[in-house]
TrEMBL record:
GO terms for biological process: actin filament organization; actin filament-based movement; endocytosis; sensory perception of sound. Residues 914-1098 form the TH1 domain. GO terms for molecular function: actin filament binding; ATP binding; calmodulin binding; microfilament motor activity. This is Unconventional myosin-Ia. ATP binds at G104, E105, S106, G107, A108, G109, K110, T111. It comes from Hirundo rustica rustica. The keyword Repeat applies. Belongs to the TRAFAC class myosin-kinesin ATPase superfamily. Myosin family. Residues 11-750 form the Myosin motor domain. Keywords: Actin-binding, ATP-binding, Calmodulin-binding, Motor protein, Myosin, Nucleotide-binding, Repeat. GO terms for cellular component: brush border; cytoplasm; microvillus; myosin complex; plasma membrane. SMART domains: IQ, MYSc.
Amino acid sequence: MEGASSLLDAEAVADLVLLDPLTEESLVQTLQERFRRHDIYTYIGNVVISVNPYRSLPIYTPEKVEEYHNCSFFAVKPHIYAIADDAYRSLRDRDRDQCILITGESGAGKTEASKLVMSYVAAVSSKGEEVNKVKEQLLQSNPVLEAFGNAKTVRNDNSSRFVSDLGTGLAPCWGWEHGGDGDMGSGAASPTGTPFPDPAPLPQGKYMDVEFDFKGEPLGGVISNYLLEKSRIVRHVKGERNFHIFYQLLAGASPQLLRRSTPRGVGDLEVEEELGRGFWLNCHLLSPQPEQLKLRQDCRHYGYLNRESSSLPGMDDAANFHAMQDAMRVIGFSPAEVTELLQVTAVVLKLGNVQLSSSFQASGMEACSITEPQELREICELIGLEPGTLEQALCSRTVKARDETVLTTLTVPQGYYGRDALAKNIYSRLFDWLVNRINSSIQVKSDEQRKVMGVLDIYGFEIFQDNGFEQFIINYCNEKLQQIFILMTLKEEQEEYVRESTSGILAMLDEECLRPGVVNEDTFLTKLNQLLATHKHYESKETQNARRVTDASLPPRCFRIHHYAGKVTYNVTGFIEKNNDLLFRDLSQAMWAARHALLRSLFPEGDPQKVSLKLPPTAGFQFKSSVAMLMKNLYSKNPNYIRCIKPNDTKSAMVFTPELVLAQVRYLGLLENVRVRRAGYAFRQLYGPFLQRYKMLNPRTWPRWDGGDREGAEVLLAGLAFPAEELAFGHTKIFIRSPRTLFDLERQRQERVAQLATLIQKMFRGWRCRTQYQLMRKSQVLISAWFRGHRQMNRYKQMKRSALILQAYARGWKARRTYRRYFRSSASTCLANFIYRRLVQRYLVGLAKNLPPLSVTDRTWPPAPYRFLDDANRELKNIFYHWKCKKYRDQLPPSRRAQLEAKLCASELFKDKKTLYPKSLQQPFRGDYLGLKQNPKYQKLHAVAKDKLVMADSVRKVNRASGKTVPRLLLLTTEHLVLADPKAAQPKTVLSLSDVRGVSVTRFSDGFLALHLKELSTVGAKGDFLLVSDHLIELVTRLHQTFEAITGQALPLHITDRFSTRFPKGDVSVTVVESPKAGTNGPVCKKKGSNKMEVLVH
């Protein structure tokens, strides 16, 4: 009952519903006290409040997972695992779709909370090979999306700058907490021409739909990308960074990848490592290679990176780049897709370096032109486009008036707008393509019925000193989420919070953008003042003047909305511009004309045959549609809430700032949540846990109640004389209206527990004293018995010792008297020993003068002069012979030693195993039978072998299909085995010795061998090799020595008449038969069907 005890802690209640008195100060003070105790989680009923500790706490261990698994929500201490377990069990057991809504400002721990929810679901759900595969792909989508969708902001080093809807089976959240001050969707509206839409901004956050089967096992999911903060591509404030991918690419890619100007050869493995991380090596060797990315590694060279250093404490961009490449490989990206992705990323980065200059035409009109064409040429080389086409699209635009088409030049500001709009569009659409590509790998393929758990990680209300279009749409989204909270949780308070002013303002903003004539922020504000003048949640300078209200805090070009979290003043500057956010058609058509497959696919509207004059939807319209789709998704699920709070602005561990927390408590509406929850009954609990906790307060229920839980609770409370209006009995729960009643109940329990503890202590002390006395009495009796026994034992030992001394003196006296009579009897032994030593000395001196010659072939040895020296003589003979052999080996030159070692190795491999071995004893191992150095015809082969040649010989290769043999040149080096054409003297097959699996030979006197290769090797995929060699013993011996030197393992050698070999079409059984039909020219191979071969040897 640890959780219940924590819930009722008077100083720091775990459920704020029980807080008394209920004020903002007491609520913040309770959160602070619990935070001081490292209790970062607090309940408001079934709503979890999480305060970010900015440090690791030991509360997420596997033991904690087991503690909260299948446990009652209020039976344990408040924890995020409790709400995750409750949601998962409701989904699995009650077949109810769930959603977990996580809110809070940047740095409050929302992303970490969503990770903890998903990790808990992963831990308690079933495991399996297929589930683990889905889990791995989902996990690896994190570094990819984080690289392209996250950036450093003022508030966060790894802020998510996109909104996604992720359906996962075990999806971690990608990215840490996001900042709240990004400039989303900036740009200038096009004065003329038909533009294409630029994806609108959306509040930063993440929504995840976890999909399970009927057993509760995760299946996978889908990422639904809403919108990206693409304005960060062209502009970010000092102290922030652009998206991580730019810095990772420049820091992690090798110079060869960034500046490679020629296609990669076979040996350019470093660049291959950068593009494919080694996994796609074989694919790349067979496919055309990309041109250089034409980038520099210095971040200060690029305008879109603010020409600032890329260093960021605690973040390794190079390592993250390699992690992203590994993740793409796991997800299933092809090498061509990775190459095109990096090329398009490089194009976006280089667009920021395209500079424009102003000039004047003959007509006097201002025009712009490219200042330095080098960057433009490199961009066009990357995407396969003529530089003139892109330059014309950047510096001019096509205007259609009725049936006429006019090409007009752009001013420098218009040109820079077009350049930035193109960069933002390319990156935004590239991110959409990336999300769709990941979807193709992780989405659920089956059609079976699925259950869904959604996790929404969304930024809370933003109230800055200067609030613009971005803050307006963020707060609009939060208003919608608050409506869900009211509708699904606080239904009786719904009318107080439902507001439609923000939605109406977005509609009026769209109407103003589409209206003909002069359109600007002033006309938009005038329209708001006309239509919303009487709305109780809308204020502006004009409406205040009409009401004769003076408010100096409301500037002229601003309006104020009364949100549920407070009043927010918005500056209308930029509303029209950011709501339009258009792209010139000329730029779309230029991108469609590029020969780059990926870039071309991102701009389908650029096809001249699909020209549409329909106006694109505005950012506000797209945003409202996205939020409506999100709301529809959330309305279909059962909600669970996690409110995240940031305790300080400095990210300091365990530092609590009450003023900052109070502001978050207000705009999160926590106090209102508590009040609505307490409008009915403040405390509710199942009958069983309630009776178990308080049964000691009534003698009828203590110490054991044999009836039902509800009857026991009624009997218990009947004896406590509480007012009837304070209690209510439900079907499964007891309800207590006032926190005071609950605290009184808890006080009585503590007093009764103290009484019971005193009684238990009294009984225990009496039992302990009695037990101690009995033990002391038993010990005294035992000690007395042992003492008496010890005293008698010592007396006996003294008597025995005295008797032994007397006996010893008597036996000594008797022995001495007998020795004096027979003391000369040992003289013969002394004489015999002297003679023996003298004979041994004479033998050794004579042996030293008559040692045999030092030749190792001479095995003679003088015989022993006496029989008793036979064993010693044989041992000395062996020692002398081994010594001679060592002296002989020490004098050998290295080449001779190597030959003898090879002969010894051949003896170990083939002696008494193969008939051919005795014939090879007299033949020296020459190694080079081709004369590579002397024969000019083999210069190329000599260059291949270099100084690593071990053996060169002519062999015959057996055709796998017909069994016929063809001549080949075999070169064995310290690392490879090469088969070459004897006529052209060109290598045909190059094998790495590590790819050799084993060798099979026959037991007859033939030169036939089978070289078995590993299936996973490049050459091994074609099957094993069958060879015939005239120097088989030497070839296999040297191959064995070289293989053992490289791998540290002995070469598997099989000497048998029947073995299996692997051909491209399957395994073939080879049978070796000794037959006179073979002749003297070598073995004869005959195919016997598709999977048998017979080899006739002489």
